[in-house]
Write a structure and sequence with these properties.
Length: 85
């Protein structure tokens, strides 16, 4: 009798563990599917060389403009310091 109860409890615990494991595996699988779809989208968008080149060109144009403005500001500050001395 005690063995039957113990076997039932152990079986129940195994079913709970298996259910939790199955749920976790299903969630991981869903997340992986989402990531694969996202990766495919990224690969397709990066494969578009013309659009990618245009985006980089625009980024570097803005960056260069900021650098030119900073250099102008810094050189203006240096000139003001020289005038004060």
């Amino acid at each position: 009798m005690n063995e039957d109860v113990l076997l039932g409890v152990i079986s129940g615990l195994w079913l709970i563990v298996a259910g939790a494991g199955g749920y976790a595996i299903r969630r991981i699988h869903e997340k992986l599917d989402t990531l694969v779809v996202h990766q495919t989208g990224c690969l397709r968008s990066f494969a578009d060389k013309k659009s990618n080149a245009d985006d980089h060109r625009e980024f570097f144009r803005r960056t260069d403009d900021h650098e030119r403005r900073l250099i102008r500001l810094e050189s203006g500050m240096d000139q003001k310091r020289c005038m004060k001395e």
